[in-house]
Design a protein that fits this description.
By secondary structure, this protein is an alpha/beta fold. The chain is built from eleven helices and 14 strands. Helix 5 packs parallel to helix 6.
Length: 330
């Protein structure tokens, strides 16, 4: 259900966890969206919390998440902390009766995601998940090509994502993204979740999936090599390989149809390419400066009752299920 708001009502947001992702990717989008206001931020480090607020022109800053969540002048909360704390904070936001957007992945596992989904659904409060690729023009152009039948009936999707081990990885310096207690799949949880969620958006929900995972490098506790195959509700098959210890970088998706194919990267800002009717069409569609801008603007449209947001608690829950199936957790 869409909670319809008045055009004139300003929705005042608070951010819990104003780290790097909020500096450019997301935080400014809440200030640029008409009808939204970034009214408060929270970080446990008082100096960093105050610094962020001053640099971004945010009127309030906290070191206590509960105080931000229960501030009567905050209408909605964006949770931008590591995924192992998403459920903890989201349940508090739901208890306060406020709308919530949570960073992706929705939670470290399906069980936590389900608990989050249920409480917001039971209270009829909007819950969004920051799978912002569903709102980006370049991927909606890919969806348009698919929906318009440009490549005929969809047969298969394949994704290869390879990355070099970073200097942090090689140093074995602590990184929560590769701590198995926070993210069992490591960079897979952080990056592959984007692509798998996007495929469900483009091609329909994934009905069954299986995978294998391994730690090949021994640089950290999380997995670094994962492979999977699946089938969508349309009958389209899918497969992917993710490896974070390769000698070079690759990010390539191929959606193959009965009349052609579409090739694009999930992360790299290269052209999207349509091969059909013996012709090749390349389009370069630039991301906005704040990559979550359209995702945030779509939340405003949701509140106004103009459209349903493409990335909500239900779709985020589905992606969590897919991820856990690949990792063999369920």
């Amino acid at each position: 259900m869409i909670e319809k708001k008045s055009e004139s009502k300003i929705i005042r947001w608070g951010i819990i966890g104003c780290g790097n992702v909020t500096e450019v990717k997301s935080g400014p989008a809440y200030q640029k969206t008409k009808g939204f206001e970034l009214a408060a931020v929270m970080r446990r480090d008082a100096i960093k919390s105050e610094d962020y607020a001053k640099r971004h022109g945010v009127p309030k800053f906290y070191t206590d998440a509960d105080k931000l969540i229960n501030d009567p002048e905050i209408d909605a909360v964006y949770i931008a902390t590591p995924p192992d704390s998403h459920k903890f904070y989201a349940l508090k936001v739901a208890q306060a009766g406020k709308a919530c957007c949570v960073e992706k992945p929705m939670a470290p596992n399906y069980a936590d995601s389900l608990a989050m989904y249920k409480v917001f659904k039971d209270k009829d409060i909007p819950l969004f998940v920051a799978y912002y690729r569903r709102s980006l023009p370049r991927f909606n152009q890919v969806k348009k090509w698919i929906d318009d039948g440009e490549i005929g009936e969809i047969r298969d999707v394949n994704w290869s994502l390879y990355r070099k081990a970073s200097s942090v990885d090689l140093s074995k310096e602590y990184n929560w993204r590769t701590d198995s207690n926070v993210a069992l799949g490591g960079y897979f949880d952080d990056l592959a979740s984007h692509g798998l969620d996007l495929f469900a958006y483009l091609l329909g929900e994934i009905m069954d999936v299986a995978g294998f995972s391994n730690n090949q490098q021994g640089l950290y506790t999380a997995k670094d090599a994962i492979t999977a195959c699946w089938i969508h509700n349309s009958g389209c098959t899918g497969s992917a390989s993710w490896n974070f210890g390769c000698n070079e970088q690759e990010d390539c998706v191929e959606v193959v149809g009965s009349l052609g194919k579409i090739v694009f990267p999930v992360f790299d800002e290269n052209p999207i390419v349509l091969h059909a009717d013996n012709c090749k069409t390349e389009l370069f569609i630039k991301h906005p400066d704040n990559v979550q801008l359209y995702h945030v603007e779509n939340m405003k449209e949701h509140f106004l009752g103009n459209s349903l947001h493409p990335s909500d608690g239900e779709s985020g829950l589905h992606t969590s299920w897919v991820m856990d199936k690949i990792m063999g957790i369920i």
